[in-house]
Amino acid sequence: MLFRRRKVAATKGAKAKKPAWREWLEAGVFALFTATLIRTFSCEAYTIPSGSMEGTLLINDYLFVNKMAYGPRIPNTPLALPLIHNTIPLTGGKSYTDAVELKYHRLPGFGHVERNDIVVFNGPSGDTAIIEKPEKQKINASITESENNRKNAQAYFNFLLNKPLTEVVVIDTEAVAQLPNVVEDNALDVTQREELLQLKDATSIYALNTQLKRAYLVPKVNTSLDLGSQGFNWQYDNKTQYYFWGVNLQWDLFAAGRNNYKIKQASIDQAGSSIAYDDAEKSFMLQLTQALNNYNSALANYKSAEEQLQLATKYYNDQLKVYKEGQLLYIELIDALNQLTTAKLQESITLANVHIAVAAIERNKASYPINNK
What we know:
Helices cover 53% and strands 8% of the residues. The chain is mainly alpha-helical. The termini are far apart.
């Protein structure tokens, strides 16, 4: 009996060894609790999400925020997954629950906010709506202006075709969405313009008229032959036959003054037509050169808009990723989306300008193929 008591006492004095999994679990819980406590009330690591501090800090720079300087803030939603911001990685769901909500409260700190201090803060409540409303109104105004321009273009196009102004205009969206090509061979050729062809024909006519007026110096010789019969009662024999043959010579030697005036008038008309052709050709060449320059400028702007769209798309995707991780304000995501939308609109506008420039080239060259069938 005495031996049994000693064994029990010895057993009570010895500590039971914990399993390895329990030691790891307790260590993990303690580390998680300590990290959450430090992160909530002491300090926390952040990355710079925007360029508002580029004078001193750059985007994606790392910094530690001392929450005890002005006093740590009590979490409004204490029931949340630890060490995670507003959204859960990969899934995108909320990392907290609204079952328990606390009022805003901040614990005492070691100091107060002073001028020129670098602080980290959340966006004020309602600032997104305040900033977003003017942007929305601006976009609505642009949409209204674009719709008005579309209606005016529709009415003008139907007016040119002598159709009702409200007639529906079918647009080939596939052709409009593609980048048009301009053939560079004979790029400055305007000889097929209808105006130049008419002036060229007029110059040829005036040249022939001048040659005709100069022909008065050449003598003109005419001959005539008259055959007939003068028989009575339709009698016809070798005694009733007759013929007249004559020669006429015309040489306007005494009308030189009048003919010289006509020659000069014809030469002036020919020279005027030739000058009109040259002036029209130079004018069309100038217009075509300007149209080609406008096309090159519009094409360069379109390529620049394409690059800007690629950069805006990448920037938005990066900002969306940061926002899902809870490190970006919603208004900054709105700004990135606004930049992406503006870049898409600018690309469409520059593409339309390229089409307009190509149409101007075709009009100045009179090279657009018209199917009259």
